Amino acid sequence: MTSNGVETSDEKFNIELLEAIFKTSKKTIQEYVRELDRYNRFKSIQHVAGTSGTVMDDRGRLMDLYDACVQQDAHLASVIETLESQIIGERYMLCRINEKGKFIKDVKATEKVQGSQFDKLIRGIMEAKLYGYTAFEILPEIDKRTGKLKAINTIERRNVLADQRRIVQRQGIWLPGWNFDDPQYEDNYVLVNSGSLGLFSATTPLILAKKFTLANYVNFSHTYGQPIIHGKTVSEETADRKRLANDIASAAQNKVIVTGLQDEVDIKTFTMSNSERIFTGLMEIVDKDVSNLIVGSESMAGATMSYVGATKAHQDVFRDRVEAYRRYIENVMNEEIVPRLVGMGYIEDGLVFKYAKRLEMNDQDQINLYNFLTDKYEISADEIEKTFGVVVGKQINLQSGNNGGGGGAAGTDDRLVMSDEEYYKRYGHRRGEPSNFYQGRR
User: Fold this and answer.
1) CA 288 → CA 64, 284, 321, 369, distances in Å?
2) Which residue among 83, 203, 250, 407 is the one 20 to 30 A from 209 at the CA level?
């Protein structure tokens, strides 16, 4: 049959029927260049060739290159794990907007979109920026044990023609196939298309070059990294020389070698001339570029900085980059996913997907913040326990007469060094007046 002038299979879509070819080993930069040429040809004729019956946007081989880099490069995998740690978990919620523009969390609705299936969904949306696109199958069935959606499946990218908005059963073959815009599929199947080849298009050539460099470095280390043991003997007999050579060879394990009185054993170490830096320097450059591209900072991906100021600057860049990913996820969820969940009757209308606006701080920064706030505001004991896991009682610095407010100058430790006028300018209240925010001033 046809839908919008495009041939569609009469067979109902079943994700288990998809067939794809995986080739993620021994990838080269030449293969990457060929796939770029293929994509450029597609972009050049896309507006005139149409989409009916012709597979043009087949990125299956490009996905092989991307997956090969993720599987075989530990640094890239760790950077992605770092990014995932910032976008999944309990940071997001479903909420409503009140008349003042404030987001009010809906606890029951939020519980429905937290769990393994929705973590998979959010991770897939993030990967759309890395791979270029991601396709989802959202099934309306409810899991009787959890009360949440039973399955949200990621459709294999090799079977998706992203710019042609089509799923094909066999990679590279038009029929059988199904269209995302077909009325019978548009409510349960979502294509998240970034409109480009994704960030991996920039990291792939770097990582392929890094693998070649690493292989050369291993060969270099085997050749020049191990010292040469040189033995000398006064004997002219070939048997004596072979005996000494065998003794030297076995000395590495036995730790002991016995020679004649006039035999000599000398270790010839290789004088390093920074030749190895050619290899390690190139690999460090690749890791740095990969980190900067995906998370905005190499220090946030495991590298160390020379001084505190640089680390804080990189933290700011990293947080801004994470915020951009979160904003992208919010837009996709609110424009593509939430309306479908409402249509399924899974959640109520009027809800908005939102990341919680909380500060991302390390433990020491959180402690400093709470030290600052508890001297000026009353903090709930439940909030302290939720943040630090410490059960606390009554907040003692709210009681009159303690050194809680004004940095301790309002209590009994005042040595009367300052005049009354200087004291008032510095602390905002006169000597003897309560300094706590909630006590007020006379």
Assistant:
1) 23, 6, 16, 32
2) 83
